[in-house]
Amino acid sequence: MRSGTVYTETMIWSAPEAFAAEAPYQTVIVSLDDGGRVTGRVMGERVAIDDRVVEAETRDGVPFFRKG
Amino acid sequence: MRAVAVVGIGKTPFGAFPDRGLRSLAVEAGEKCLRNGAVKPSQVESFYLGNFAGPAFVGQNHLAPYVSTALGIQGVPATRIEAACASSGSAFFHAWAEVAAGISDVVMVVGVEKMTSQPTARVSQILAEAGDCSGEMKAGSTFASLFAMIARRHMHDFGTKREHLAAVAVKNHAAGALNPDAHMRKNITPEQAMKAKPIAEPLTLYDCSLISDGAAAVILAPLERAAEFTAKPVRVLGIAQASDYVALDQKADITTFPAVRKAAEKAYAMAGVGPHEIEFAEIHDCFTIAEIIATEDLGFVKRGEGGPYAFAGCTGLKGERPVNSSGGLKAKGHPVGATGVAQIYDLATQIRGESGERQLARHSLGLAQNLGGSGATCVVSILGAA
């Protein structure tokens, strides 16, 4: 699974129609160890800039990251 | 390349108008503009419409002739331009190019958006479609969340504070309170701004621009013919449009907008002026952090100094370089497709000395910066007294 460092993040409280039932949820841009950046979601504990994260699973092409 | 002037301006109030349709708003702005410029519909040689999402918001496509014919403008090219929130800034750029190139003499540009007929979650969804739907938007991003991520990184890299963001909101609400055409005419305190409900952390409700209905229009003509239409022409001294990635995660550094820097550099070169000569500006404050970064990218201050600059009051109505004396997108309102032309309207009104209580002491050289998406399109225009 991919791993990397949190480049930036936010906790979304006001979600678009398709995600309204999931709010609040955290999104991140992760700088991947293998290069490049990807936008994903956070599972479990909240993360902050510079935290290390690993990809826990992928749902419909969206990576979900977990602290660690 | 010919010198080009704005010879007519018109605008509706911005707000939530449940009984008004898209075309009715566009026609009101257009008719006011034709009267302001003493231009007959039959004299208009080409028509541009800036509109982001009419098909999604109101279910109508083929919008340019839908509006132009309602204004009595017949037979001429009628072209819609979509560039997210920079739709009508881009329409203005292309209209300017057509006049500057000598293809047409009298060209009208209308910007319009009718947003409030949809609930907020649906509006967020439609706006999100201006992002990358294969990546960031699939993850549940909103535009507020993209700018929230930009704010977080700007805070991390430069020490920008929550108080700095609030200062922008307080300032723009103060100007909007004096603007009879603004969507929200009320003053707010920094505490209110910071303690409001979170939208996407660290942004609260007061960091976000408004969901509005409205339209704005301008007419361009060669400077040498301007006197036929108005005693107060406003000259387009410099203008440029630039582009960048749509997805935020493709950018090397999200605390600066390369498209803003490129458009500004070209517009300054065309106008023969530098950032420190600009007396006032209308800046795309879709979110408070966007105004802070724009003051840096436009060269008003160095990178990382935009927050303290706003917090010190330098961009207030009485500051050294007033920004958003109209109230900005924050308080004037942000019918997205209307915003670019509305900024030109606001610059022209200041340059003509017609801004009432908001009239600035120095108002002969102004800059408008219109941003699309999270920075994928930017149009910078520099206007001055002719």
Keywords:
heterodimer, A: 68 residues, mainly beta, OB fold (Dihydrolipoamide Acetyltransferase, E2P), 5-stranded mixed barrel, 5 strands, 0% helix, B: 386 residues, alpha/beta, Peroxisomal Thiolase, Chain A, domain 1, 2 domains, 9-stranded mixed β-sheet, two-stranded antiparallel sheet, 34% helix, globular
- Order of strands, widest sheet of chain B: 3-2-4-7-1-8-11-10-9
SSE sequence of chain B, one letter per element:
EHEHHEHEHHHHEEEEHEHHHHEE
Based on the structure, what is the oligomeric state of the protein chains? Answer: heterodimer
Name of the CATH class of the largest domain in chain B: Alpha Beta
CATH superfamily of the largest domain in chain B: Thiolase/Chalcone synthase
- Assign an overall shape of chain B: globular
Number of strands of chain B: 11
Strand content of chain B: 15-25%
Radius of gyration of chain B: 19 Å
For the largest beta-sheet of chain B, the strand count, sense and barrel status come to: 9 strands, mixed
Helix content of chain A: under 10%
CATH architecture of the largest domain in chain B: 3-Layer(aba) Sandwich
Which structural class matches the secondary elements of chain A?
mainly beta
Uncertain stretches of chain A: none
Structural class of chain B: alpha/beta
Q: How much is the radius of gyration of chain A in Å?
A: 11 Å
* Approximate shape of chain A: globular
CATH topology value of chain A: OB fold (Dihydrolipoamide Acetyltransferase, E2P)
Mean of all residue-level pLDDT scores of chain A: 96
Structural notes for this entry:
The complex is a heterodimer of chains A (68) and B (386). Chain A has one domain (3-67): OB fold (Dihydrolipoamide Acetyltransferase, E2P). Chain A is built from no helices and five strands. Chain A has strands at 3-12, 25-32, 37-42, 52-59, 62-67. In chain A, strand 4 (52-59) and strand 5 form a beta hairpin. The radius of gyration of chain A is 11 Å and the shape is globular. Chain B has 386 residues and is α/β, with parallel strands linked by helices. Chain B has two domains: 4-119 and 212-235, 3-Layer(aba) Sandwich (Peroxisomal Thiolase, Chain A, domain 1), CATH 3.40.47.10; 127-208 and 236-385, Peroxisomal Thiolase, Chain A, domain 1. Chain B has a nine-stranded mixed β-sheet, with helices on both faces. In chain B, strands 5-6 form a two-stranded antiparallel ribbon. In chain B, strand 5 and strand 6 form a beta hairpin. The longest helix of chain B has 16 residues, at 143-158. Chain B is globular. Chain B starts with a strand and ends with a strand. The A-B interface holds A 7-20, 22, 25, 27, 29, 37-41, 49, 60-62 and B 120-122, 124-125, 128, 134-142, 144-145, 148-150, 152-153, 156, 197-203, 247-250, 254.
